[in-house]
Amino acid sequence: MWEVGTMVLRYGALYTFSLADHLIPKWELFLTMDYPRSELVKFPKYFGYSLAERIKPRYSRVKESGVRWSLNKVLSVLDRKFDKDLKRKTEELD
């Protein structure tokens, strides 16, 4: 449970999110992702991003590409940089 305290210290806005509308759906998706729970402790801002508009689409693209990035890298960069970096990394894998 100490992880929750650490997450709140790093991202105080967690207190403001609806459990049913925001936290639980994002947690359930996270459990299907290929990340250890420690990723959430490092990057609790994950819960601040839109599930439909940011998390799902970006995670799908990264997973399909075979690139391994932290949640922070997947979600926090601007769209243009995300697209450019993903394209570059995908080409490096080929």
From TrEMBL:
Query: Which BP terms from GO are recorded?
Result: DNA-templated transcription termination
| One Pfam family here | mTERF
Q: Which GO terms describe its molecular function?
A: nucleic acid binding
The protein's UniProt keywords, in alphabetical order, are: Transcription, Transcription regulation, Transcription termination, Transit peptide
Entry similarity comment: Belongs to the mTERF family.
Domain of life here?
Eukaryota
Under what name is this protein listed? Uncharacterized protein
